[in-house]
Amino acid sequence: MKGALRCLPSAVAAGPIPPATENLSYSMLLPGGAYCAGLARDSIRTLVDRHGLTELTETAVLAASELVSAAYRFTPDREMVLRVRWQFDALRIVLYDQHPAHTEPDEADACRDRRSRSMWLLTAAVEAHGGDWGLAPVLTPGGGTKSWALLHR
């Protein structure tokens, strides 16, 4: 038969891919209101539980809440992006906010120091799981901050 595709396997009915630790990878845009910390907590709780990481649930929920709350304190009512992913044997929770870039290096250092000090609860929770957290400026013209928490099993 002319034009037949001989290299394609026969069609097999594919079912839905069930949630597993290996395929935990989600991103969500949060509108930036004070209520977004609650949305982040609910979303993280559901995703982490469904993907079989229940031993990390409470710490992951706290981490997401602290990251979103800090972003709201420093950049109220601006959109933020929350990402959660299992990668390299760790749960990674990353938040991007729209905190404006500082023109003076001293201002940037002071702002970073204020935000870091406000994350004392996140520090304690993440360290209890042998994890880590951090802040970094987003290298875009408009600025922004990337804050993250890393949790191990």
How would you describe what is shown here?
The protein has 153 residues and is an alpha+beta fold. The chain is 36% helix and 26% strand. A five-stranded antiparallel beta sheet has the order 1-2-3-5-4, covered by helices on one side. A hairpin with a 2-residue loop joins strand 2 (80-87) and strand 3. The model has no long low-confidence stretch (mean pLDDT 90).
**Mean pLDDT score, rounded?**
90
Shape: globular
Model regions low in confidence, pLDDT < 50 over at least 5 residues? none
Task: Give the count of helical stretches.
Answer: 4
Strand content: 25-35%
Helices and strands, in N-to-C order? EHHEEHHEE
Rounded to the nearest angstrom, the distance between the terminal CA atoms is 55 Å
- Work out the radius of gyration: 19 Å
Summarize the biggest pleated sheet. Answer: 5 strands, antiparallel
Structural class: alpha+beta
Question: How many DSSP E strands?
Answer: 5
Instruction: Please give the order of strands in the largest beta sheet.
Output: 1-2-3-5-4
Helix content: 25-40%
Which descriptors would you attach to this protein?
153 residues; alpha+beta; globular
Brief account:
The chain has about 150 residues and is α+β, with helices and mostly antiparallel strands. It has helices at about 35-50, 55-75, 105-115, 120-130; strands at about 25-30, 80-85, 90-100, 130-135, 145-150.
Annotate the secondary structure layout.
Layout lengths: L24 E6 L5 H15 L6 H18 L5 E8 L2 E11 L4 H13 L2 H9 L3 E6 L5 E9 L2
Antiparallel strand pairs: 1-2, 2-3, 3-5, 4-5
Helix pairs in contact: 1-2, 2-4
